[in-house]
Design a protein that fits this description.
Elements (H helix, E strand, L loop, with lengths): L3 E6 L2 E6 L10 H16 L5 E6 L10 H5 L5 E2 L3 E2 L11 E5 L2 E3 L1 H7 L3 E5 L3 E3 L13 H8 L2 H10 L3 E2 H6 L5 E3 L4 H13 L3 H11 L4 H13 L2 H11 L10
Parallel strand pairs: 2-3, 3-6, 6-8, 7-9, 8-11
Antiparallel strand pairs: 1-2, 4-5, 9-10
Length: 247
């Protein structure tokens, strides 16, 4: 869809929200486009990771309020806001944030596994200023990522912080000079792609599980029976890079 572009760069799928005239705000078309892009990432075994960004140095201003007033939904059933915030992806997804990541835009970033941000990017959850709450995962996820009182300041004041400050809070993985977030995120995706895909998927499943210990036992059992674990051990013994098959 024209509102969301995808580009394959090596083993990474670069996903770009492309509504710069609306600061990449999420309407029904963007949600459908993101869901389709994530399906593409999940379905292709040659793709090992995804990078999500926005066109023209703006990540996303969040929900398109004008579209919402017309009755459009920015959610996909079973996948949440933008087709992402409730999606259960097996492959790593990295947010590359420049400019605004406000409201739902911030929640899209929180829905990713890693975040790379330009130093002057803006992260905020201003929903309370409009009589709403950050219901796309912000109220739930943010207090798990940073200390309680700092999360409450985000949620109760609605005031934004810069990418630099987000780095100080431990909210983002990398802080880059403005304009470099996507390039650094792609480099990070390449680093993730060096690892076994089944192991990466298992880590993600365990981290999001309600009972992580039980899920971990199940995943370890499956991994120990995989071809990839034998390849990893053999490659280590032979002092060479492993050749993962995802089997």
């Amino acid at each position: 869809m024209s509102e969301v572009r995808t580009e394959r760069i090596g083993s990474t799928l670069l996903i770009t929200i492309d509504r710069p005239q609306a600061r990449n705000a999420v309407n029904a078309a963007v949600a459908a486009g993101l869901a389709a892009a994530l399906d593409e990432l999940e379905a292709d075994p040659m793709l090992r990771a995804g990078v999500l960004t926005g066109a023209e140095n703006t990540f996303s201003a969040g929900m398109d309020l004008k579209a919402a007033l017309k009755g459009e939904s920015p959610e996909i059933p079973g996948r949440g806001f933008g087709g992402l915030t409730e999606a259960e992806l097996t492959k790593p997804l990295i947010a590359a944030v420049e400019g605004f990541a406000m409201g739902g835009g911030f929640e899209l970033a929180l829905g990713c596994d890693l975040i790379v941000a330009g130093e002057d990017a803006q992260f905020g959850l201003p929903e309370v200023k409009r009589g709403l709450i950050a219901a796309g995962g912000g109220v739930i996820r943010l207090p798990k990522r940073i200390p309680h009182h700092l999360a409450m300041e985000f949620l109760l004041t609605g005031e934004p912080v810069t990418g630099r400050r987000a780095g100080e809070l431990g909210l983002v993985n990398r802080v880059t000079p403005n304009g470099d977030a996507t390039a650094v995120a792609l480099q990070l995706a390449e680093k993730l792609a060096e690892n076994a895909p089944l192991a990466l998927a298992a880590v993600k499943k365990i981290v999001r599980a309600a009972d992580p210990a039980a899920v971990q036992r199940e995943e370890i059992k499956k991994l120990m029976q995989s071809a990839d674990v034998r390849e990893g051990m053999t490659a280590f013994a032979e002092r060479r890079a492993p050749k993962w098959t995802g089997e």
